[in-house]
Amino acid sequence: MINNDNSKNLQQAVQEARAQQQALLIEGSGSKAFYGNTPAATENSRVLSTGEHQGIINYEPKELVITARSGTPLHELQAVLAEQQQMLAFKPPLFSSGDQQATLGGTIACGFSGPRRPYAGSARDFVLGSRIINGEAEILHFGGEVMKNVAGYDVSRLMVGALGTLGVLLDISLKVLPLPEAEQTQVLECSVQEAISRMNQWAGSPLPLSAACYDGALLYIRLSGAPSAVTSGARRIGGDSLDDSQSFWQSIRELQHGFFKNDKPLWRLAVPADSPAIELPGKQLIDWGGAQRWYIADKQNKDNSYESLYKTIADIGGHVTLFKGAIDAGVFHPLPESLLAIHRRLKQAFDPQGIFNPGRMYREL
After folding, report:
1. Beta strands 282-287 and 292-297, pairing class
2. Which residues share a beta bridge with 60?
3. Residue 201 and residue 216 in one domain
4. CA 360, CA 348: separation in Å to the nearest integer?
5. With 35 labelled, which of 82, 123, 232, 331 sits at a CA distance of 20 to 30 A?
């Protein structure tokens, strides 16, 4: 594994951009370039890559804590953890392809979590501390490497999902968890409403759930933990045991399942887990025990108006993200003015000249 501290060069690049009022388009390997709005690039903008800033700074298996630089390839980090029978509990997708190998910084900046998220926690829940460069070219350290250090304004977790708009991530400290002793996936045939009801019912029961999704015909329930608990849970749930459980959940996590194999825009609908089936013209795949619903419309919206979709999801307490696909619409659900004002104040506090990824999250920022 490469061990290279590129902090000073990155800091110097921010200093130069600040002096020249130059926009910086931050990226690791580019594997997440499809996600978010296209940054408002100008003739004076430049790409700032964190890809060479790599390496594990500290790893304490007994303390369940690891600290690594933002450019560290995610698969290398996971391999080190696996040697100690440990893992990133939120099991993020890689979305890697060729030379575009997912990095830790890109994963945290996007806030991605896999199917385990509703049962283990999100990426944000496992961030203990971080080191960043702000828009004033200052290197700042927030949080620490133990849970008790997370107090007051939790700035480290504020960086999760910020898409690099608030600062350049240098290092991230994460809590990790032991790998489960056993895993098993049960498959049941049922209707969509039965699937939603069962996922929510079992989520409130003492079952070792670690994933639950419905593909339109079959309900998949993964159990993880002690062998006796997994065996007992499988008997209670019923259905058939899935032979290649790992490959199936990887296909869901990496968006490689047959559902995702088309060129149409892919929408992510985040809703309360117990929301009933959402009637929309197209097809859906339900993940996260009902809380995440992937949606592909039957056809392109001719007038590029998606207000009805925003309203439908907002009315049930959810929000919408255009996860993949190029259309004339903002990627993220429009914010009410009160929340947009908070985002503006945060942007002003961390990046007063607006040099980091302008417009990548919301076009107004």
Report:
1. antiparallel
2. 65
3. yes
4. 15
5. 82
Residue 278: what are its φ and ψ, rounded to 5°? -95, 120
Report how far apart, in Å, the C-alpha atoms of 118 and of each of 121, 122, 152, 178, 187 are. Answer: 6, 7, 25, 17, 19
Check whether residue 74 and residue 217 sit in a common domain: no
CA distances 76 to 79, 104, 253, 295, Å, are: 5, 10, 18, 32
Q: How many domains is the chain built from?
A: 3
Considering the domain architecture, whether residues 174 and 230 belong to the same structural domain is answered as: no
Q: Work out whether the CA dihedral 69, 134, 322, 195 comes out positive or negative.
A: positive
Amino acid at 341: A
Q: In this predicted structure, what is the pLDDT of residue 153?
A: 59
Against a cut of 0.70, is the pTM above it? yes
Characterise 282 by phi-psi region: left (phi > 0), alpha (psi -120 to 50), beta (else): left
Dist. CA 255–CA 261, nearest whole Å: 8
Judgement on whether residues 230 and 278 belong to the same structural domain of the protein: no
Alpha-helical runs (H) found in 277-336: 307-314
Task: Profile the chain (365 residues) by mean pLDDT over runs of 10 residues.
Answer: 93 96 92 87 85 96 97 96 97 87 96 97 95 96 65 79 96 97 97 98 96 97 98 97 96 96 93 96 96 89 71 95 80 91 95 94 86
Q: CATH code at 269? A: 3.30.70
Q: Rounded CA gap, 25 and 28, in Å?
A: 10
Instruction: Give the burial string for 194-222 (b: 16+ CB within 10 Å, else e).
Output: ebbebbbebbeeebbbbbbbbbeeebbbb
pLDDT given for residue 44 in this prediction: 80
